[in-house]
């Protein structure tokens, strides 16, 4: 994978070999846009070098529309998952970040949901009947991966009901900035991990457009 270096936070340091341990669940870059929408649990860390025994987590929804979504091979980053196949891997760069999960209602099932304070990408104009499309982001001009909250139609907060969890594309590692790092850095802005962003960010904005 190739991606630009961030301006401030070293996200690659957060996925050094020393960061991996047995029992963790990590987001893994997928084959559809290379975004971190796959999940794998680390079963064993082998040495010397970087070598892991992992078990994949596979989407396991109950809703019929969501089941059809999964059958079409569309991405799933939220909801219920079950254990899949296991394998060995020495490819450290396929891993993005560790994630939290909770046990599901059935044996060997788990639930992954967005948590307060996390940064997640959303599919634009999402609909459960629709096919995959690229998302857009509001980026600060002059920086590689700096983003801020913006108002749209007079609102900067909206709710996503439980039945629309597949609207979430993937979690993006983020680092909150104070505004003192450099000139023109908005206070409270977030630097997002470039490895978890689409190669083409189609919208840009000026700092005066942002809200704190």
TrEMBL record:
Annotated InterPro entries:
DUF3444 (IPR024593)
Q: Give the protein's recorded name.
A: DUF3444 domain-containing protein
* PANTHER family linked: DNAJ HEAT SHOCK AMINO-TERMINAL DOMAIN PROTEIN-RELATED, DNAJ HEAT SHOCK N-TERMINAL DOMAIN-CONTAINING PROTEIN
Tell me which domain of life the UniProt entry assigns to the organism this sequence originates from.
Answer: Eukaryota
Q: Which Pfam families match?
A: DUF3444
Occurrences of domain DUF3444 (ranges): 1-138, 139-181
């Amino acid at each position: 994978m190739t991606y630009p270096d961030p301006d401030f936070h070293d996200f690659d340091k957060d996925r050094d070999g020393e960061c991996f341990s047995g029992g963790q669940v990590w987001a893994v870059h997928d084959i559809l846009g290379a975004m971190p929408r796959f999940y794998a649990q680390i079963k064993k860390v082998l040495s010397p070098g970087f070598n892991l025994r992992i078990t994949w987590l596979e989407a396991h929804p109950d809703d019929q529309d969501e089941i059809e979504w999964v059958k079409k091979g569309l991405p799933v980053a939220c909801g219920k998952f079950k254990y899949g196949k296991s394998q060995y891997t020495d490819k450290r760069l396929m891993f993005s970040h560790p994630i939290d999960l909770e046990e599901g209602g059935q044996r060997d099932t788990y639930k992954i949901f967005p948590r307060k304070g996390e940064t997640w990408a959303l599919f634009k104009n999402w609909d459960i009947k629709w096919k995959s499309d690229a998302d857009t982001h509001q980026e600060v001009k002059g920086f590689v991966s700096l983003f801020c909250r913006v108002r749209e139609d007079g609102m900067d907060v909206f709710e996503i009901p439980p039945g629309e969890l597949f609207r979430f594309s993937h979690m993006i590692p983020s680092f909150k900035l104070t505004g003192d790092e450099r000139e023109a850095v908005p206070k409270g802005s977030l630097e997002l991990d470039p490895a978890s962003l689409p190669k083409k960010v189609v919208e840009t904005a000026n700092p005066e457009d942002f809200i704190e």
